[in-house]
Structure formats: C-alpha cells, structure tokens
Please model this.
Amino acid sequence: MLRLLRDWGVSLAFAVLIYLGVGWLRAPSLPDEAPDFALKTLSGEPVSLSSLRGKTVVLNFWATWCGPCRTEIPWFSKFATENPDIVVLGIATDGTEDELRAAATQLGITYPVLRADSATQRAYGVNTIPTTVVVEPDGSVGTVHVGLMTGIQLELATRPASALFGR
Model:
C-alpha cells in the first residue's frame, strides 16, 4: 500500500511538472498585428518593424548565455544568407553592446543583432528564450515558436502554405 501511494505521489508530481513546463513554454498570445518597435543595431543603425512592411521578418529573441539559442544561431545564419528576401533580426535580451558584438562574432551571426528593451520584450510576451516570431509582409503575426527552432522549422514557418503544398 505504501508503495502504491508513493508511486501515485511520484506520478502526480511528474504530471504537475509537465503541466507547468508546458504552460511556461506556451507561445505568448500576441495581437493579430505585430507590435511595432524601434531598436538599434550594434552599429547604431535604427530599425523599426514598420519600416520593414512588405517583407517577411523573423524576430529571434535570444540571450548570450542561452544554450538552445546558441544551438539554433547557425541555422538562422544559414537561413538569412540563403534567403536575402526575408529579414532576420536577432533581438538580444541581455548583454552590453561589446558583449553582443563578441558573441555575434564568436557565433558567426550573419544577420543584424538588436538590443531588446523591456517594452519590446513585454509587447511580444517574451518570458522564455529562445522565442521566434515570424511577421508576415502585411504586418500580421504568423508563426510564434518558443524554444529551440531548427532550420527545417524555420523554413516551414516562413513559407506560405501554397509554396509548401503546391497550391
């Protein structure tokens, strides 16, 4: 009987951890239109989402200490190089400009890195990193992905269904 209670207790604790973990990794609820922002690149150039209207934009929220972020960066760099018609922006949630420059060089980032501010993180509901948001050319929110995103997932998230399924 004691073993049965212990097993049930362990199972219940495991179920609660899974429930909480899934809730924590849930994609943020965003409005239909992607929130505008104005941030600067590491070289000081201003970038606003509204200035990129008409293009597909990938926003990848990341941090220098984040293992999954560091793992996915080569896929994002390759994607950015192979898809110059799609804007990829790495939005760093930590680090000074010097630290971010060093990380960008070390990680081989081929796309612009912006330093996030708290208002942008709040507007996109970023409380788990990495978080990737694909903004459609009309400014609407497309795919929202929380956690590590592979190159294949990035390809699928940025392609219209007609291109994927030949319609």
About this structure: The CA atoms of residues 69 and 130 lie 6 Å apart.
